[in-house]
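Proteins fold reproducibly. Next comes a concrete instance:

***
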Amino acid sequence: MDTYLKVLQKEMRPAMGCTEPAASALAGAKAAQLLDGRPTSLEVVTSRDMVKNAMGVGLPNCSLKGIQAAVALGASGGDVDKGLSILSELSDEQIQHASSMPVSLAIDSEVPSLYIKVVAKNEGGTSVAVISGEHDRFSYLEQHGQVLLSLAVDACGSSLQEEDEQFMGGSSLSDLLAWVQQAPQEALTLVLEAKDTNMAIAQHALEHSYGLSVGRIAAEPIGKKPSSLSEAFSLASAMAAAASDARMAGCPLPVIINSGSGNQGITLTVPLAVVGSYLACSEEKLARALLLSQLVGLALTAKKNRLSALCGAFTAAIGTACGLVYLLDGTLVEMDRAFNTMVGNLTGIICDGAKMTCALKIYSCVEAANLACKLAFRGMSPGNESGIVGKTSKESMDFLSRISHEGMEETDKTILSIMLGKQA
C-alpha cells in the first residue's frame, strides 16, 4: 500500500475526549482484563507529559478529572476493543466504582514522554499493562508473573511503523504536495469523513457553552455565514476554538485525531472546512487541501516528540496555513512562505497540558495561519536572517526539531513543576 495513505489511515482515528486520558483508561482496562475479577487497587507509573496532559481536562460522560481517574474508569469496566473511544460510554456503576478505587501515582523521569504503566491487583493476583510510543500501542503485558508481550517502550509497534515515522520525518513540503496532487480516492474519502466528524463538534459548541466559550464568543460578530473572505478566516479560527472548548470540557462527541491529538485533528480540518465552504470549492479540492494539512502536521510530529513542551496546535496550524494556501490556488512558493512565517511567529508557544485554555491557543494559532496565508500571497515572509527561520520550509522543519528535542527539555520539567506545585 502507498506509504502516505497507510500513515494517514493509521493516524487519523476517532477518539472520545482527550487522548492522554483515553490512553490511560485503555491501559487500566487492559490491566483489569488480565486479572481474574475486578482489581481492588491500581498502581500507575507514567511520564510527566502524560500527567501534564491529563491533569486539567474533563473526562467524557462524568465529572472526574486526571490520569488516576481515567485509569480507574478503564479498570472498572472499560471495553479494550473500543480503543481510544473507551470513554464514549460510562455506566453509573462504573463511575461509582472508579471514584472509590485506590490508585497510586508515580512519575518516572526515565521513560519516554508517551508512556503509562498500570499494575492491577486483587486477591487473585497481579497484572501489568504498558502503553508507550503511541496512544493505543501496548508494549508490555504481564499476567500473574507471566510475560505475555514485551516490546521496546520507545519505538512504534513494528519495524514497518518505525520506517513510517522516518519516512514522514524525511518528507519535504514539496514531497507532500506532489503526493497530494495525485492522491487516490481512498485518501480523499478519509479526510472528508474526518472533516464531517470534527465540524459536528465545532457546530455543536457554537450553540452550547463549554469551558471559556472562546469559539462561541469569537464567532458572535460573524454569525454562521461569513460575508467576506476575511470573515471566513475569522469564523474558521472561532469554530476550531469552539471544537476545542467542547472537547476539553469532556463533550461526548468524537474527534478524528492527528498525531495522537484531537486538538491537532481539529486544527487541521475545521478551518479549511469553513474557508472551503465560503469559497464554494469542489469537494475534491477541499479534500486535497485537507490531505496536505494532515500530512504537514504528521511530518512535523515525526520531527519532534508527540508529547513535548512545544504546543501541538502551533505545529498543526502550520499545516492549516499550507492547506489555506492550496484552497486559494497558491503554489509551493506561497506555501513555503506561509510555513516560514508561522515558524517566525509562534515557535515559542508552550504546551502546559490539556485544559480549557487549549481553545485560546488554537484560536491564536489559526489566526496566525490566516495572516501567514495573506502575507504569502503578497510575497512576504521572514528570511533566514530571522532567528530560527530557515532558508526553506525543510530547513525550518529541522530547526523546529532541534527546538523540540534540545531546547525544550528543561522547559517541560519547569512547566510540570509549576502545575504540580499548585496542587500541593
The longest strand covers residues 115-122. The CA atoms of residues 219 and 235 lie 6 Å apart.
